[in-house]
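cache lookup: miss for this entity combination. No prior model stored, computing from scratch. Input as submitted by user K.M.:
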Amino acid sequence: MTEDTADGGQCPTPERFTQARAAQSMAVLEDYAEMIDDLAQELGEARITDIAARMGVTHPTATKAVARLKREGLAVSRPYRGVFLTEQGAALAARVRMRHRVVVDLLVAVGVPQETAEIDAEGLEHHVSDVTLKAFETFLARR
Amino acid sequence: MTEDTADGGQCPTPERFTQARAAQSMAVLEDYAEMIDDLAQELGEARITDIAARMGVTHPTATKAVARLKREGLAVSRPYRGVFLTEQGAALAARVRMRHRVVVDLLVAVGVPQETAEIDAEGLEHHVSDVTLKAFETFLARR
DNA sequence: ACAGAAATGTAGCCAAGGCTATAAATCAAG
DNA sequence: CTTGATTTATAGCCTTGGCTACATTTCTGT
Ligand SMILES: [Mn+2]
Ligand SMILES: [Mn+2]
Ligand SMILES: [Mn+2]
Ligand SMILES: [Mn+2]
């Protein structure tokens, strides 16, 4: 017998919420890392002003986010200069970009309009586990 | 010509992030509303202790969340008594439960293990737009 | 070279959502 | 009816991620 909660398995367990909160705490880091990587490719470097504009926030908010990235070892920067990802930050950006793309592709594959897929993916991407991502890739390869 | 950003459409627009942040600000409200509804069905009423235990937080945290629910007109309660959803709160809970179920079903349909689907859905559900939800339902009906 | 514009930094405010510690109320036995 | 256990409330702290206002630095055009 594998049932010790005495319900059909539909009762949400606290760990689910804990897990969702943990994923959420990574979301901002992930989006900024990806954006900095985007800007580095497009413009050579990521300036605070550009980061803020693209993230849809004011520049002090972007500065704070970058401070957190630096604290977590994902980025480096010197005062009044651009922001650059560390190796670790670049690796995160790459993973996030890949996940984003797979999520969008899956949404489109099941019938979601491209525009909507792009918008929803921006939130969804942070809650797709490795197992789910792999399932998405397999589904996309086989369909 | 519909292209004024001069890129292939892969450049994230600030509105995407703004939208994701808006969705996130509803997430806690949605999860608590659904949980209170669960407890009301199972036990007749939702007590703070039970809410906290199931959400995986301490009871002061649950109290604060309930305070916000009350402030937003989604729940009512009197001191030292259970928490009850308003009509509006119950409607939200119903929508959220439905969305959660559809998300899990879709994940399973594309090959995600049930256990993983349940865990990931807890975060994903808050970022699925109405358009995407409809697409999921259509996909599930047709497959 | 310098002045004005633009970018960046910084201080300080707010709300949300975590927490611990402590007080008060309710409930359950005896 | 009391009393001890449980539940709930409240105060206060922390971090995060928004914001505005203002100071400082860098860049740019003449
Ligand atoms: Mn995102
Ligand atoms: Mn993304
Ligand atoms: Mn949820
Ligand atoms: Mn849910």
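stored under new cache key. Helices of chain B lie at 14-43, 48-55, 59-71, 87-109, 114-124, 130-142.
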